[in-house]
Amino acid sequence: MPTKKNSPDLNKLDRIVVEARRAQEERERGYREQALKLFPWICGRCAREFSLKNLRELTVHHKNHNHDDNPTDGGNWELLCLYCHDEEHRKYLNSGTTSGAAMGNRQAAGGGHKPFADLAALLSKK
Known about the structure:
Helices cover 38% and strands 8% of the residues. It is mainly α.
């Protein structure tokens, strides 16, 4: 059992997680709003059409699976419904590669999205 001296500050960890989630939601809102302005509200796979009533079910998919690659022209995005988006990620994960090589001519995932990349730095701050 960890001693009080060695135990993590749970309040600090909670604050860090909340901040990381808030930052992620803010990034997503930015590129999602841009994508919704650029593209018709139609799933790029199943062609389901969306309206304001069900727009929350339309997601932005990063074609190269790199969530940090957000060109303003939308070149790395496609709008997919929740179901098609899940299927796309299932296919990617089942391809047995994390390099993106199984994605055909798409760019390799490279650095990809790293939600906890700066966690150590955040934890070391006092």
